[in-house]
Structures are given as structure tokens and as C-alpha cells.
Write a structure and sequence with these properties.
The protein is built from 31 helices and 8 strands. The protein is mainly α. The strands form 2 sheets. A 6-stranded mixed β-sheet has the order 2-3-1-4-5-7, sandwiched between helices. A two-stranded antiparallel sheet has the order 6-8.
Amino acid sequence: MSTHGTPAPIVPPPAVAVRRIALVGGPNVGKSSLFAALTGQYVMVSNYPGTTVEVSRASLRLGETEAEVIDTPGIESFRALREEERVTRRFLLDHPPDVVVHVVPAPQLAHGLALTAQLMEAGLPVVLVLNMLDELSAAGGSVDTEALASRLGIPVCGTVATRGEGIPRLREILAKEVPPAVPPPIVYPPAVADFLATHADRLARLGLPPRAAGLLLLLSDPDVRARAETVDAGLSKSAAATRDAACPGDAGTAGCHGCFLASGAAAIHIGLARRAWATDIAAAALRGKPADAAPPRASADDLLLHPLGGFLVLAAVLYALFAVVGVFGAGMVVDWIEGHVFAEHLTPGVTSLVETLVPGAALRSLLTGTNGIWTLAVTYAVAIIVPVVGLFYLCFGILEDSGYLPRLGVLVHRFLARLGLGGQAAIPLILGLGCVTTATLATRALPSRRERLIAVLLMSLATPCAAQLGVVLAILSFSPWALAVWAGVVLLAFLGTGLAAGRTLPGPPPRLMTELPPLRWPSPRHIARKSAMRIGRYLLEVLPYFAAASVILWGLEWTGLLVGVETALRPLARLVGLPEEASRFLLFGFFRRDYGAAGLYDLASTGALNLRQLVVAAVLMTLFIPCLAQLMVLRKEFGTRTTAGIVAFVFVTAFAAAGLLNAGLAAYGL
């Protein structure tokens, strides 16, 4: 999965003759696993919906044909309700690929076929891939792919993408020409069928497949409605008239359809027609189990979703995270790497080598001086930050691959709803504990801009990244009350901001729209590979920022301006009761949060802060303004004005909270 930048732009097909193969399907159906199996290029694969938040691409050789495989964000229906679904729909309809590989989990065949119908109605060349055949087999079922292909009139292939099963057969199918699909014989209500037949020529002028455009227009899709009003305003009015048409005859009769459309239930009626067709097709193809048969409710889910038991499990998970990341990672591992590996071996060796080989005091100072690239950038990133972030990603990988995170979203939905968020927001909020920048991109899976805005505001203010969390646990773990005060202030800021935002920002109440993937034992090999990829990406992201910060600090020091900058920041430090030396980690924090966290760790290790100042500094660093990387992502996602508002709010709130905490602790003689 690509996790950086804005959604991939929808561009016309390339000028060269490259076959474009799009992998399409709902969230958590195995598209990214299939992408990796086909192309050999690993992408982030997780056991929860929304792993792919933008379009990813890779090359594939099919005999003499050069192809481009495109992994698209999850989509449940062309009636796109989330940003990730809109990205995929625009990709499919505006510039159709040469082949659409629709990935459907075999155990949920009937559910997946509803989207297959929409792809076929759009006239796209469709190949149906039934993934997770092993799970269907484990449930006592099988599927007749030949019978299914005959009923649908499109190629069908069964796979277990994680093990590479069925991939050779899929490559054979993709090496051949795949003709456009014929729309399936779905029996829509008469009002819908009449509209599609009567206005077929006018619908064709919208630049979209006529049948797909007509159905979306009847569903009041904003994109298609805007297109119709520009090209043919009368068509939009005809669709509205069809929706509003009263049913001829008795509205209570069994055959009435117009009354449903008149009541605004077009989506329900069209969906029911597709569901009836899909259920019939799946029932004929499945053997040994009914279509979409519900598995027996696992005792694990009884515990994980229980109002009491679920929160007990959550408490245990958080404690384990604290023990692994805070006590073991930020304490033992960082102490050993920084104090033994770097301080006793690497840094003296590098310093000696620089002194021998590099001419000029200024250049040597840039590399190994007090603010040098090795001294700050490399040491901070590798010795202090990576051990903490790496252990967090290992723990997070276990949680996501087990299927626990979507269940956590269901568990905390009622609580998050008070903050204006749905339960699905739990995943980006937890991901923010690793890297807030990545988590900001993950909010694209949330259903509304309002929920995205609330989520990024909470992450920008009161969600410490792994580096911050590790440093706080390391410097405060010796004092349980200090750790409790820090956690209480941060939680209060989180809740207060969320409650205020939920009540202030306009919008409908949040709804929970997610699916619960099966609980699975995480694969150690997969977790190790994914964690290594995340750590590698993290280093590639932070090292340039750390190096740039070192160069800027070195330049300021060498020109004598650093003293002036730190002097300008000292009033901010004194405002919250911190010593003047704290202006250094505030300056670092402007570049990156984790850079500031490493600076605070260095300051705390010198004994320059008493216990009250440690608590205040920990709160201030946690609530501090977003780092440059997150600021750039925020600006791309929400615009300059919204980003400036978030920064101003976070800055004022951070110093106000730290100042009030300092005054309160001082009043009690602490």
C-alpha cells in the first residue's frame, strides 16, 4: 500500500500499449495480497478494512504483453459513500482499465457479487477472482467455478493469494483478451427499468456507461447529477420525476414499486434487486454450505465485544503495549543502543574518522559537532527513535493481523460517537500512536469530512506518536503519580477537544460502517516483513528531516544566530515553568515531534529538570504543534486555511494546558 501523499490522480491511459489491470473489491478481501502474488512487489497487507487508501501500481509481464497492475482502494458499491470509494469509482468509470479483476472472498460470495453486477452493468471487462478458498474449505464448503463462469458469462478463478494458489491460472486468464461484460439480467422495479430503457441515448451523453450512469442518477449521486445538469438538465429532472412518481394503483399492493421510489428508498430497492440476483447465483455455485452462511459466533468475539470483557481486554492490551514499548523499548533497548553501541563504539569511531579525513573545522562540526548530522540526526533517529517505533510497529502488526482492531472500533463506537466520530475512527487514532502523519492519510477511510477533521484535530493535539510515547514512558516510569498526571491531562485535552468539536462542527451523527474480518493467528514472518518495511519507510521519511534540522541548527550556531533563536524561545519555556535549556527541545519540535522527543530525552538524562518540570515538559511535548511532515499532509488533505486553524488551536491549547498544570503543581508544592 502506498501511504503517503494525496489520492493518486485519475489520468488517461498511457500512450504506449500497456494493458492496464485493475484489482477491485471491497475492503479486506485480499486485493493487496493478490497484488503482491501477481507482481512480486510487497504492499502493506492487514487484517482490517481500509489498508489501501490510494492507488498503487506495479509492472507485470504476461508472455509478450507488458501490463500494469493497479491496486485500488476498497469499494463496496458504485454509490460511493467514502473518499476511498470515490477514488476507485472515478478510476473505473472515467478511464476504464483494460481488465477489471474483481476480488471476492469465497465465503462471502453472494455479498461480493452485488459489486460484480455493477461492474458488469458498466460494461467493463471483468474477471472474477474468488479469494480465500482455504477459509471456505475450512467451513466445509466449495465452489464450482466453471458453473459460476457459465452463469455470469465472465472468466472466474479461485485463489488463496497469501499462498500463491491459483495465481498461475489467473495469469493465463489475464494474458488473453477479456471482452466487455454483458449486463446481468437483474429484475429492477418497473420504474427503474423504464427510466433506463427510455433515456438510454441521453444517458450515453454523460460520458459514462449508460446503465451505470442511469442507476447512479436515480440514486441522486452528486457527481453524476452534476454531470447531468451540465450536459442535459432535463435528464436530471426526468430522474427526479421517476423517483417522485407515485405508484399507479393501490400503494399497498404487493407489486408496488413507485411508492418506494417516491419515499426516497431507491437505493434500498435497487440494492434488493441486486441482492436477489446475487444470492441466486451464489446458491447455484456453492457446494456444502449456503451462500454467505454465517459462521458460528466465536467465544473470542463474545469476550472482545462484551461491554465489560472487551474493555478488560483493551486494558490488558494497553498494559502490554506500555511494557513492551515504554519499559523494554524506551528504557532498556534505547539505553543499551545509545549508551553502549553509539556512545562507546560508533560515535568515537566516526568522530575519529571525521577528524582524520575531513578538512576544515566547519565541515567537521557539521558532521560530528554538537548539532552535527551524526550527533543529532543519525543518533536521534537510530539510537533513540527507531527502537521505540520499531517495537510499536511489531505490536501494532500483531493487533491488526489478528483482526482485533475492527472489533475495538465496534467496542468503542458509543464512546467515540460522543466526540463526533464513528467506531471506524479507532483504527487511524491507534495508528497515530505510531506516526500521526501516516494516520492522517488513513482517515480517508472515514465516511465524512467532518469525522476526518475531528480525527486529525485529536491526533494533532493529543495523540502521542510512538517516539513521544516512548520518551514519556522512559522519563516518567519511575514515578507512577507523574505518569498518571501526564496521562490525565492528555486524556482531558483529548476528551474536551473531541466533545467541543463534536458539538460545534455541523453534520449528521456518526454511524458505524465496518466489517469484522475473521480472527486469525498472525504470521510471524508476515509481521516481521511488514514491520521492517514500516521501519524502513520511517527512516527514509525522518532522516532527511533530521539531517535538514541538523544543518539548520549548525548554520545558526556557526553564524551565531542560534543563541538569538533560543533566546527568543526562552520566554515560552519560562511561561510554563521550564528552564531556559528547554528552548532547545521546543526548537527541535518545530521540525518533527520525534525530534523534539529525542531532544527532551537528552535534556532529561542530564538531570536538568525536576519532577514537576518533567511532567510539564512531557505534557507540552505531547500536545505540541504538528511536525513539518504532518503539516504538509494536512495542507494537502484539508487546505491551508484549515491547517492554519488546527496549528493555532493546538499551539494555544498546548501552552495553556502546560501553564495551568505547572501552576497547579506549584500550588501544591510539587
